[in-house]
Write a structure and sequence with these properties.
Layout lengths: L11 E8 L4 E16 L5 E5 L8 E3 L4 E14 L6 E8 L1
Antiparallel strand pairs: 1-6, 2-5, 2-6, 3-4, 3-5
């Protein structure tokens, strides 16, 4: 079945990232447009896109995900003091 107006992804990248109370930055080789960011850790993680992350940024609670259509190539992550999380990032374009 063909769906009109829907194009298949031309490129997919997956990353497993360890976040802690020190900012972690993962940068792709090029800009991607659609992203799923899943927090598989026991604590919340705070995210920013192409800019420094702080605990004032967007919060992804433990066991939750963020699906976003936004062009960026660097994912910045940080946890609160003494906390950590494993984050999975799926990027497509």
């Amino acid at each position: 079945m063909m769906v009109s107006g829907v194009s298949p992804a031309t490129s997919v990248v997956q990353n497993k990232i360890s976040a802690s109370d020190t900012e972690t930055v993962t940068t792709l080789t090029e800009t991607y447009t659609s992203h799923i960011i899943y927090n598989d850790g026991p604590y919340p993680v705070y995210v920013n896109f192409d800019a420094t992350a702080t605990t004032n940024n967007f919060k992804i609670p433990a066991g939750s995900s963020l699906s976003i259509n936004l062009e960026f190539k660097s994912l910045h992550l940080i946890c609160a003091s003494g906390e950590n999380a494993t984050v999975y990032w799926l990027a497509t374009k």
